UniProtKB/TrEMBL annotation:
PANTHER family: GLUTAMATE 5-KINASE, ISOPENTENYL PHOSPHATE KINASE. Pathway: Amino-acid biosynthesis; L-proline biosynthesis; L-glutamate 5-semialdehyde from L-glutamate: step 1/2. Its EC number is 2.7.2.11. Substrate binds at S54, D140, N152. It comes from Pseudoalteromonas fenneropenaei. Pfam families: AA_kinase (PF00696), PUA (PF01472). It is found in: Cytoplasm. Coiled coil: none annotated. This is Glutamate 5-kinase. HAMAP family: ProB (MF_00456).
Length: 386
């Protein structure tokens, strides 16, 4: 950080199991001490820090000392054992720097529901205002399949949106995203800058190469996709590199930066990006895509070509062009049965077809967020690292 004046930023630091265990079966305290020192340095430089921590399952496994953790319920039990140990450790380590920490355990349900999202956001904001470092993990012990995020990469993107963060730093056991998994491809090149998360890029990202990690690079790309769309810059870097937090943020260490071209979105539109899952898909004709993307219009039934999925009034749906590219999402004012009758139809015919007119538009502009994922000519740049 040096002594140079930097604008105060909110930085979310996600610490994967791979970093916290340094490749061993239990938490590596020396590594955690070093990461806390670096977070304290960030705060010293005037930034706000939020930590998204993995490692509860690893800590629980070591504490129990019996072979287990293959089934979901066993993993949940291990997380319940390990979470207490994990937060206790963070609390003691941050206390060495006079920093108070707070624990927040979240599931998808906490961000899906708008009022719960606002509560989590307000708590987080309040903690930061009081100079506390929030330490966040998924509430694994109670996270059923329906409500779990499932991996801390996606969770950290949601947290970055909740915290209105400037940057999300994903620290892992690799220097970033490579053109192939470096564990099995030693010639793989580091991708140092990503401009657009394309299907080609997604195909380069494999799962976790270890028994303890969840999701590998695939979930880190999903996280980068969500966070950059909300205006948060995302970096992936190796957590064990000396002074990595400052070095990655200043662009001095090898890393992958997901450049954010989108202006930050506000309020409800941030929640639309972080919170609800899409329940259906609406395919729009070319005219509708242009009207929505370039002219600030709302979606009319006339521009709908096809639909899929089952959704109720107020559910989140994805809007796609005729090539299947998702370009927006938002809250639909009709259910799927109604829309099946109304697609391609002018609103003046709604009353005759339905017997009532719930709304003249299918998706109002205010309830919609554009994803801005135009195909880029050069989606990424690679770099040789020694
Ligand atoms: N294209 C890729 N570039 C870098 N790492 C990759 C790639 N594909 C898969 N991986 C794997 O992703 C792993 C990191 O993810 P993960 O194990 O989930 O770590 P963490 O616990 O830090 O979230 C790496 O150890 C690597 O084996
Ligand atoms: N919530 C889990 C971690 C889940 C997860 O995504 O792990 P990782 O891929 O190591 O970041 C735990 O605390 O063990």
């Amino acid at each position: 950080m040096g002594n140079e004046k930097v604008a105060k930023q909110t930085i979310v630091v996600k610490l994967g199991t791979s970093v916290l265990t340094a490749g061993q079966a239990s938490l590596n305290t020396a590594q955690m001490v070093e990461l806390v020192r670096q977070c304290a340095q960030l705060k010293q430089a005037g930034h706000q820090v939020v930590v998204v921590t993995s490692g509860a399952v690893a800590a629980g496994r070591a504490a129990l000392g019996k072979p287990c953790g293959h089934s979901l319920v066993e993993k949940q039990m291990l997380a319940a054992i390990g979470q207490g140990q994990l937060i206790h450790l963070w609390q003691n380590l941050f206390a060495l720097y006079g920093i108070t920490v707070a624990q927040m355990l979240l599931t998808r349900a906490d961000v899906e529901d708008r009022s719960r999202y606002l509560t989590a956001r307000d708590t987080l904001t309040q903690l930061l205002a009081f100079d506390v470092v929030p330490i966040i993990n998924e509430n694994d012990a109670v996270a059923t399949a329906e409500i779990k995020v499932g991996d801390n990469d996606n969770l950290s993107a949601m947290v970055a949106i909740l915290a209105n963060a400037d940057k999300l730093l994903l620290l892992t056991d690799q220097a970033g995203l490579f053109t192939a998994d470096p564990r099995s491809n030693p010639d793989a090149a580091l991708i140092n800058e990503v401009h657009c998360i394309t299907d080609e890029l997604k195909s380069l990202a494999g799962g976790s190469g270890t028994a303890l990690g969840t999701g590998g690079m695939a979930t880190k790309l999903q996280a980068a996709d969500i966070a950059t769309r909300a205006g948060v810059e995302v970096l992936i870097a190796r957590g064990s590199t000396p002074n990595i937090i400052a070095e990655a943020l200043s662009g001095k260490a090898p890393s992958t930066t997901f450049v954010c071209f989108k202006a930050p979105v506000d309020g409800r539109k941030r929640w639309l990006l972080a919170g609800p899952k899409s329940s259906g898909r609406i395919t729009c004709d070319e005219g509708a895509v242009t009207a929505l993307c370039d002219k600030g219009a709302s979606l009319l039934a006339k521009g709908i070509v096809a639909l899929s999925g089952e959704f109720a009034v107020g559910d989140l749906v994805s809007l796609c062009d005729v090539n299947g590219r998702e370009f927006a999402k938002g809250l639909c004012r009709f259910n799927h049965q109604e829309l099946e009758q109304l697609k391609g139809v002018h609103s003046r015919e709604f009353a005759a077809l339905l017997g009532y007119i719930p709304s003249n538009v299918v998706l109002h502009r205010d309830d919609m967020v554009l994803l801005g994922n135009e195909a880029a000519d050069k989606p990424y740049k690679t770099q040789k690292i020694s």
